[in-house]
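Whether sequence alone determines local backbone shape is best considered at the level of individual chains. For completeness, the protein is quoted in full, as a sequence line and a line of structure tokens:
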Amino acid sequence: MNIQQIQMLTEATVVCGENGQEQELLSAFASDLMSDVLTLDCNDVLLITGLCNLQTIRTAEMAEVGCILFVRGKKVTPDMIELANENQMVLMTTEHSMFRTVGELYTNGLKPIY
């Protein structure tokens, strides 16, 4: 599923990385615990989280996550956008809950990591 499809399904707004919308993502992982994100060992994954701070971007960088979808209407800061741009990441936000977001993406074919 590409990022543009994810954006439409979740009614998300792309905050950063508009040029990467055709990128294909093979699976998704939802967590607010960045220590869990660091255990990921895969490529082309979407991180779905409600934890919206610079540490989230740094953790995604270390885990080689290229796209983050922030749920529950979280607002991305300019510092987060700057760091994400440096790492060529796509950042999106949606007003939907994590539960609804994950359910919508799973129902439409995006696979979980576990």
User: Anything to note?
Assistant: The beta strands are 13-16, 27-30, 45-49, 67-70, 90-93, 111-112.
